[in-house]
Amino acid sequence: MAQADAGVAPLSMGRPRKEKLVTADGMPLKRALQRAERRRKLAAFLLVAPLLAFLLTVFIFPIGQMMWRSVDNPQVVNALPRTLEALRGWDGQELPEEPVFAALHADFMADADRPRREQAIGPLGIRLNYEVSAARGAISRTARNVASFEAPYREAFLDEHRLWGDPNLWRIIQREGRPLTMSYYVAALDREFDEDGRIVQRDENRRIYVNLFGRTLALSVGITLLCFLLGFPIAYWMSVLPMRYANLLMICVLLPFWTSLLVRTTAWIVLLQQQGVINTLLVQLGIIADENRLSMIYNMTGTIIAMTHILLPFMVLPLYSVMRTIPPSYMRAAKSLGATPFTAFRRVYFPQTLPGIGAGAVLVFIISIGYYITPALVGGQSGRMISNEIARHMQQSLNWGLAAALGTMLLVGVLILYWAYNRLVGADSLKFN
Amino acid sequence: MGANGAESGFVRFDRVQKSYDGETLVVKDLNLDIARGEFMTMLGPSGSGKTTCLMMLAGFETATFGDILLGGRPINNIPPHKRGIGMVFQNYALFPHMTVGENLSFPLEVRGMGKADREAKVKRALDMVQMGAFSGRRPAQLSGGQQQRIALARALVFEPDLVLMDEPLGALDKNLRERMQYEIKHIHNNLGVTVVYVTHDQTEALTMSDKVAVFDDGKIQQLAPPDDLYERPENAFVAAFIGENNTLRGTVTRIEGDACTVKLDGKAGEVVALRVNVEGEGAKTTLSLRPERVHIAPENGRFPNTFDGRVEELIYLGDHIRVRVSLAGNDEFIVKVPNSTSGRRISVGETLRLGWAKEDCRALDPS
Predict the structure, then answer these.
(1) In chain B, where are the structural domains located?
(2) Which residues of A touch B79 (CB under 8 A)?
(3) What is the value of pTM for the model shown?
(4) What ipTM is given for this predicted complex?
(5) Beta strands B194-199 and B39-43: pairing type?
(6) How far is B60 from chain A (nearest CA, A)?
(7) Given an 8 Å threshold on Cβ–Cβ distance, is A332 in contact with B106?
(8) Domains of chain A (ranges plus CATH)?
(9) Residue A336 contacts B where some CB pair is shorter than 8 Å
(10) Residue B294 in 3-state DSSP?
């Protein structure tokens, strides 16, 4: 400011200043300010840069990769370029004619000539096996013997494996002969393509994922609700206790954080299993009969109990931090104004805890919707969640495309829920000014 | 004023004691009558028990022993929300998630009042504190002084007979505090409501109250109207706590009627003082003398007490000059000299002849 004044010294202070403000040596003030700020901005950026780089490499990039993998479909295009070309005019009804099979033969032969690492027939078998369960065997067997095939190739292929005579396989080859596919998403929604290429629901007994998504959602809502019901009183109690006792209680709440997840989960197994501590105690106290031992683990109950325990601190901490800032004088004021303790709580105290409830609920919900280890260990069959299915496709069935599609749907679902939360009760509306 | 001709004992503390830990008493044997319509201030340093008394009256603390009566009825076992006492809190305690209008409407709603009545009363209360235009705002959008007014309106909107105020002006700056003092006083006069006001600010207590109870050490040290409190303190604590005060210590050598002669410690001379709180001849005493009652260079024989003092320091305060004098072994002796054109100039190091009347020098308990 002093510099600016020096620059416009000829003008008196009282008159309106139309001229551009300049510093003492004539540089425009705006530019001088920018220059002065530049160093600070650079410092700020340098402070953030390592984390930014870290996030980009281990968070944004892998998520992008996952989303790409859910639509990426190179196998058929890479392995069967000639066949796809020959199939172009095919109407999808009858079995293709000889030229297609000749092209197929040429593709197989061309692939055998490639160096081993670039061969595309193996991945093709895996890819087609997702759609038709016998495809992998058929293709690898054909690949072994294709060198001895002679024209007419159509008969030769049909002799080698009956699958080559199935128009459905050819329809799949034609459909998946594009570099991008939505078949993983179709499968992830318990749907499939029918003979006319329309998307229809799967048979009832083969539907898995939609129900699983529903169950995951219901479990997460239930666990969030339980965490709230258990966490609210304890957070309130902590907020009114003297600091010394509150800290002690806080340590108890945080204990789960300081114990290995595996240890905690194992402890629940010890407690809850049929021959476990609780059941044995109940039997010995004569509350339940020996043959009616409760099954509290390896089912949905187990998942709910263990996950509520693990996620409780995520509800208690935001609640506590909000409650701690609510002065007791609000409740006193409400009572002095004539409100019964319950009314004072409902009308004055509770609304002020809403930011904490919102933060805690979103935290618990989002963590639990993607929870993996605990349901895997104590969930059994009925307590499985969508993340377990994703892990199965990653590790056992190796259908990474489907895993990626399920993961992407989970991610998008969470983002939509978060967006909706923000719109409905969002952080903005919870600030009281 | 409200106190005149009002029924006595509208609020009564009867031998009230309060202890938090069972070992020390925070309030020791408190007896206090507050008349209907009176503006009573509890004044005292922090930890003197005044806020505890207020909280017991409001119902947020229970008396360990003794009765608190409101309108002749013991209220020890009545919960706060049934006492019908309005209260203004130190930090205002306006509900942040409600608008100003909703805040004011709250006590009426919980009383089951209809919407039309509520709106009329809220409007009247807001107009009373000149905040009629702010009904739709949230407390966080108001300045401290505005919040203070809303808090006041909210404590009054349900027309309680008794309003408690717990250092309500503590968070305001000096000018605003003075304006609010007058406003609260005017509202009190207009409504005739009984007010119990807690503060540690003596100016606030003196300007607003009908009566002031000075608290220290869990006891009422003196209960008197403001002018009495300032001019006739009954003990050394009150004299020192209210206003500025020069203290001289000594031993009473002679008592004659309401006068006593005090020999100052350190053989600094003798003072004739008003006997207020002296046990008898030979007892130790504290002499209290207001700085503005000390005269500079009095005519000979006008005052029984004259001393020579050396000027140590001059502090210019605009309307008057504070002169710190070393006198009779006390070098914290303050004299207030009005800043008038006719006044003589005083300089540091000079020796002044100072004198004061017997009536202005009060012999109190030793402290």
Answers:
(1) 11-236, 244-364
(2) 335, 341
(3) 0.77
(4) 0.79
(5) parallel
(6) 7
(7) no
(8) 2-68 (no CATH), 75-181 (no CATH), 209-430 (1.10.3720.10)
(9) yes
(10) coil
